[in-house]
Write a structure and sequence with these properties.
mainly alpha, 0% strand
């Protein structure tokens, strides 16, 4: 098996298990503003399709070819990113929701993956997408990673707005000052965290 085949298998396994686990979502307390999520969901789906399509033999230009050893290093990053998404989902347990609407027991969780970044599912997806694009070196994969960055950024900012409103701006602002949004171990200034 090649690193590329292992990456496709990892993405497909993640996608199937993520969809199968949809029933684990907590009941939401309300469904306000959920229509605002649609563009980010469409972008995310489009990005995943582009990333996986980059493994078909026929496609757009190949910009570079990744040596086998580097390909396996990229597979390790893909696996780490996808595992991080699952760690975040499992860490929330019954608080997990597939929408931005608050759950009935909504509260700030700042432990586990949520003590590293505020949006660990998105951070893990971005790591996996960028590693996939680096391994492929094809236009489809790079476009997929860029589209995913746009979709995830849009959705994370939308969620930040909902979380500030639903959890209280003061409490959530304190969490925002302590924990970076998507890039682990980055120092953020109080002024930047209030945007």
């Amino acid at each position: 098996m090649s690193a590329g085949a292992a990456i496709v298998a990892a993405w497909l396994l993640w996608l199937v298990t993520w969809v199968m686990a949809a029933g684990w979502s907590a009941r939401t307390a309300s469904h306000h503003d959920l229509g605002a999520e649609s563009p980010s969901r469409v972008l995310t789906l489009a990005a995943l399709v582009m990333l996986i399509a980059s493994y078909y033999p026929v496609g757009f230009a190949v910009l570079w070819t990744t040596p086998a050893a580097l390909g396996w290093a990229m597979f390790a990053l893909v696996a780490a990113g996808l595992l991080f998404t699952w760690a975040a989902r499992l860490h929330l347990g019954p608080l997990w929701s597939s929408t931005s609407a608050p759950t009935e027991a909504h509260r700030i969780v700042d432990t586990g993956p949520y003590g590293i970044v505020r949006h660990p599912v998105y951070a893990g997806l971005l790591l996996a997408a960028m590693a996939t694009a680096a391994e492929r070196g094809r236009i489809e994969a790079i476009a997929g990673a860029l589209v995913l960055i746009a979709g995830v950024s849009l959705r994370a900012k939308l969620e930040e707005r909902f979380l500030r409103r639903d959890l209280g701006d003061g409490a959530y602002a304190a969490y925002r000052r302590r924990v970076p949004m998507l890039l682990p171990f980055t120092k953020i200034s109080p002024a930047a965290s209030e945007r």
